[in-house]
Design goal:
heterodimer, A: 187 residues, mainly alpha, 10 helices, B: 179 residues, 2 domains, 7 helices, flat
């Protein structure tokens, strides 16, 4: 049954994605590859919508995937399943918060975990880059390198990345500007 | 009791509906609602919850909400807070996803989302850079980063395993340093 399957997948994501909403991204990508529920283009739409609407991005992405996989109830099931481990773990930790935050094992765990999560998300960026900036789909059809690399996309990527690093404004602003650029320049 | 649970639910509903992006975006609103307006907790406690929430699995925003809900009304309070913070997402995203299904074949929408997808890529690249600065401190970190990156690009190994094994390696290295 699709709802049970969704619940099981999102329980695992809620349990193993450490480091906030963006840390669920590699799990979602792998989920799409394994189940065929969605593709790379879906992933970039999902991030764009989740960043630019109210609500924590990790929760928004869960609802988006759940809804597109199994309708309204799917969105509810995926979201609740994703936060269930958090509720259980936080309630348990609340009972012994002092001991938890002073435990050296927590610090030790994070010493290995942080670089690993960074590596996972960096790999996710590469996959998103292939889908968004390079034209791999067209390249596979034609085999011509001029089809793989679009100067317009790469230039836009460089400009927007430089702007993000320089101005540090809210992501919503960059997404809104991109939408306008995309429509005007017929991306 | 029920009235209080409803209040907790509504406070976090509000929090969920005005937060854009990730966990830290929530902090200023949280401070105003929980510390200043309601006096439920002092500022230090909220900061503690934030710090610990980042070290736990799950979405940071939901972790923080559950901590505060639990502090108010034990487990029922924790559940009310968690449900409150996700309800706006469920409503808003469901509406937008339904709209997307109707409009995604419009050329204008396609042009807009093509450019947005490039922007999204730049945004998460920036997120990776700031995570690198916070989390990768020495050669062990660089090695773990490189191995996990390569395994996720070139193989289909599950992120679950990479997370669990890296945490164990972290503990083992630190334990060895102790001696």
């Amino acid at each position: 049954m699709i709802y049970l399957h969704l619940a099981w997948e999102f329980l695992q994501i809620g349990l193993f994605a450490v480091g906030g909403g963006m840390a669920t991204l590699p799990f979602l990508q792998r989920l799409g590859e394994r189940t065929g529920w969605f593709n790379e283009k879906f992933i970039t739409d999902m991030i764009a919508i989740s960043e630019s609407t109210p609500g924590p991005i990790g929760i928004n992405m869960a609802t988006y995937v759940g809804y597109n996989t199994a309708g309204i109830l799917g969105g509810v099931v995926a979201t609740l399943a994703e936060i269930l481990p958090s509720v259980i773990i936080v309630v348990l930790v609340s009972k012994s918060l002092e001991r938890f935050s002073e435990s050296k094992y927590v610090a030790y765990t994070f010493y290995g975990l942080r670089p690993a999560v960074t590596g996972l998300i960096a790999a996710a960026v590469l996959a998103v880059f292939r889908a968004a900036v390079l034209n791999t789909a067209l390249f596979r059809q034609t085999g011509a390198f001029s089809d793989l690399i679009s100067l317009k996309y790469i230039l836009f990527f460089a400009v927007i990345f430089a702007a993000i690093r320089k101005f540090k404004k809210s992501p919503i602003l960059y997404i809104a500007i991109s939408a306008v650029v995309g429509i005007v320049m017929k991306f | 009791m029920l009235k209080e649970l409803l209040e907790i639910y509504l406070v976090f509903f509000k929090m969920g509906s005005v937060t854009f992006g990730g966990g830290y975006a929530m902090l200023p609103i949280l401070r105003r609602e929980i510390v200043e307006r309601r006096g439920w907790l002092d500022e230090e406690k909220v900061m503690d919850f934030f710090a610990v929430s980042q070290c736990l699995p799950g979405i940071i925003a939901s972790n923080v909400s559950v901590f505060i809900g639990y502090q108010r009304r034990k487990t029922p309070g924790a559940i009310a807070a968690a449900l409150g913070v996700v309800t706006p997402s469920i409503i808003i995203i469901t509406l937008i996803a339904a709209l997307m299904q109707n409009f995604q074949n419009e050329p204008m929408v396609q042009h807009a989302f093509k450019a947005i997808s490039i922007c999204v890529c730049a945004l998460i690249l920036q997120a990776v850079i700031s995570m690198w600065k916070k989390g990768v401190k020495d050669w062990v970190g660089i090695g773990l980063f490189a191995v996990v990156f390569a395994l996720s690009v070139f193989t289909r190994v599950s992120p679950v395993w990479l997370v669990v094994v890296s945490a164990l390696i972290g503990i083992a290295v630190k334990k060895a340093e102790e001696k």
